Amino acid sequence: MKLITIAVVVSLIFYFISRPSSQPTSNTPLPNAPSSVTGTAIHPLSIESLSMRRFPFQKLKLVKTISPSTQVVSYLSDDLTLNALMITPSGTPPTNGWPVVIVNHGFIPHKTIVLPVPTLTPPTFLLPKGSWSSNPIIADTIALKGSPLDDSYPDPNILSTY
Question: How confident is the model at residue 86 (pLDDT cuts 50, 70, 90)?
């Protein structure tokens, strides 16, 4: 469970770093922005700012079981529900739990999406499954905007064929 918590925290950090900021790019301090050691405001999505935040423990919510080893799970991140494809190895977990790999493929702004998205169709989106499912490791693929696990993806049944 500790590894899943670490995986969620790392996922959140990568998510916030990879998405474009809607904040102004000027040097104007942001409201409630933490201050650095020198007292100047730092961007709320900077590594320095994120490392000062507390990320509470939360359990992953099972959204859909695709196969015994593949599930769609969700978690909250700053009032947003994020989905992820979690692939778990079969067998008895090691004493300290399975190692975890988090796949974060980047942010795709809705304005630039031309559907269907050929690079995010199930065969390429599920690529980690073929690579890691036979190894003793949990692969967690975060569903960012435009991916088949995104709530706004046009075909909610796209994963039902796998």
Answer: confident
Please choose, from the candidates 27, 30, 13, the residue with its C-alpha nearest in 3D space to the C-alpha of residue 78: 13
- Determine contact, residues 143/73, Cβ cutoff 8 Å: no
DSSP 159: G
Nearest residue to 23 (alpha-carbon basis) of 41, 36, 9: 41
Amino acid at 68: P
Contact call for residues 109 and 19 (beta carbons, < 8 A): no
Total of domains in the chain: 1
Structure-token pair, residue 112: 């630039």
What's the confidence (pLDDT) of residue 149?
57
User: Can you tell me the distance from the alpha carbon of 5 to that of 23, in angstroms, rounded to the nearest whole number?
Assistant: 28
Residue 56: what are its φ and ψ, rounded to 5°?
A: -65, 150
Full domain range(s) for residue 150: 2-23+30-161
Q: What is the pTM of this model?
A: 0.47
Token digits for 40? Answer: 């100047």
Judge whether residue 156 has pLDDT over 80.
no
